[in-house]
Amino acid sequence: MTDDGTNSGELLWDLDEGPARKARPTLTVDRIAKAATTIADADGLTAVSMQNVATKLDVTKMALYRHVASKAELVAVMTETAVGTPPNLKEIRGGWRPKLELWAQEMRRTWQRHPWIPAATAGSRVTGPREIGWTEVAVGALEGTGLDGAERMDAVFLLSGHIRNTQSPTTAGTQPWSLDRTLNPMISARPERFPSLVAAAASVGNAPKDNGWEFGLIRILDGIAKLIATRRRTKA
Amino acid sequence: MTDDGTNSGELLWDLDEGPARKARPTLTVDRIAKAATTIADADGLTAVSMQNVATKLDVTKMALYRHVASKAELVAVMTETAVGTPPNLKEIRGGWRPKLELWAQEMRRTWQRHPWIPAATAGSRVTGPREIGWTEVAVGALEGTGLDGAERMDAVFLLSGHIRNTQSPTTAGTQPWSLDRTLNPMISARPERFPSLVAAAASVGNAPKDNGWEFGLIRILDGIAKLIATRRRTKA
DNA sequence: GACACATCGTGTACGGTAGACACATGCCGG
DNA sequence: CCGGCATGTGTCTACCGTACACGATGTGTC
């Protein structure tokens, strides 16, 4: 960038380092997506602007449009890369429940590595095959449980929705308390108006500070288990 | 608005209708919020820009800043007004479950009237007292169930998260099928890659087309019921 | 009744966003 | 050698939220 005299000196010395060293490697979709992902991981999806990505790659923002059609497409590519490949659940023994537990944990871990994924995968949009692959294996884990197709789909949607809700501060609803279980001061200052919330905050046990992740996971799986038990009974 | 000759005629006639009829009613927070809500109800929260709201009220956008400090504050006012007052659950008989069922239904209905609420209530922000009131009554419905404070809060959060996930197309995760249960064509074209999804889509029963709302609600409540049953047993 | 002042709406400006489009440059095949 | 095509640049438009100076207007006080 800086075009001062020192640069020419560096250029001379760099001649020793080998031939054909490109000053600027050519732009590819991959490099663009990687740069955008770095930004998103660090500063969130809102920090991903064409300008920011372009600056990081030392090009103008319009250069990016030679490789991606729109920002939405860029985000789609980022997402499809970041979600990775779903876990292989076929080798997991013990039926549908351990499989879904592993699946949920893996998904949660992936989303923790890339906290912007929930925001990027909300709303209607084009979905990539790898992302769909996650749904595929989860629905597959529920085959043979007696649930019909719609139920298997709904169960997986319920589970992934829970991950979304507990994982991302940007897509989750606002909680009355903060992450460390400290009640909103506006509430604790008005115990007569919000008695149940104040009482609940006063009697918090040693629950894990995971934004309700573990709690919800067990409740959902228990609920699904109950339905499956009913189906097996009616079938027999 | 139009400043043509017909207007003066109307003005003359209007003299009969009473004194002090203001051509433009003065701007108030209420009128601004109402206009913004109308826009959001019709075209979504993204259509709510200061410019659009101002145009609707026939003022410049900067005039709005005399009454609201920022757009975030405007959205907060809109939300607090739109959520309304929570239902009175104390009169509902039959224990926690019918109470929470009614609560969830009422919340869902409110959110259906204003589909932008999920998007407006996501992320960290200032929460209004009426909105917190909804959480208050739901947590209150779980008192006396044996759940500790954190569990009562987590249960309500789980439930409202489910409403959010099934209610708003903008905050929900993308489903492999559309609202009418038609599988994404990208999936149905590749049955060898997504066998479980194709199989599930083929065996959909007469499940309600409610985006998994009813399914998830029952599963979650069943899961909570199981936990409550455990607590009662250990207590006794 | 005049005048100062507070309130409220206007107009202009700034930095940010996504993206359309014309132009330059450099590489590669004939 | 040379023409064409791919790729990156520069400029422009239409938005977004919001800071700030200005003018009009209505109101309370002397």
Automatic annotation (TrEMBL), chains A, B:
Residues 49-68 bind DNA. It comes from the Bacteria. It holds the Pfam family TetR_N. Residues 26-86 form the HTH tetR-type domain. The keyword Transcription applies. One of its GO terms (molecular function) is transcription cis-regulatory region binding. GO terms for biological process: negative regulation of DNA-templated transcription. Gene3D superfamilies: Homeodomain-like, Tetracycline Repressor, domain 2. Keywords: DNA-binding, Transcription, Transcription regulation. This is TetR family transcriptional regulator. It comes from Herbihabitans rhizosphaerae.
